[in-house]
Amino acid sequence: xxxxxxxxxxxxxxxxxxxxxxxxxxxxxxxxxxxxxxxxxxxxxxxxxxxxxxxxxxxxxxxxxxxxxxxxxxxxxxxxxxxxxxxxxxxxxxxxxxxxxxxxxxxxxxxxxxxxxxxxxxxxxxxxxxxxxxxxxxxxxxxxxxxxxxxxxxxxxxxxxxxxxxxxxxxxxxxxxxxxx
Length: 181
Prior knowledge:
It is a multi-pass membrane protein. The protein is mostly helical and about 180 residues long. The protein is built from seven helices and no strands.
């Protein structure tokens, strides 16, 4: 793939050679594990609520059926992990900062689900508005990640675009539920 204007090329020296295949596989597995730990923790917070308060909540008319969320999030968490791995393996000057942004968005992603689903029974509508604030911050963090990843690895930046798009859509669902419940 041809670099796009402004793409950072990794510095290659004897000390900065691309990691071996074994290390690359381990790091990819680590990024995948981190994504799916976040997914698993989120599903724990969601499990009781989807059949509890959320089942009877006033949802947006454009809300997809519940079964859509699992496959979509599986794809998105996988794409997130691969994206971070592509940036990590470039060893470009902006890599540490880009991966910090990735970590921030992953933490925000982890925070949203228990706030939205788990806190609602305890504090009511305030939880839904707090979740909306978190998802807006998450959208901003992923947008910064796209902008940070793109110059290092165009493919890494592109892999995050479905994620940011889904988050904007999810934000509209969150907004509706907060307004109407």
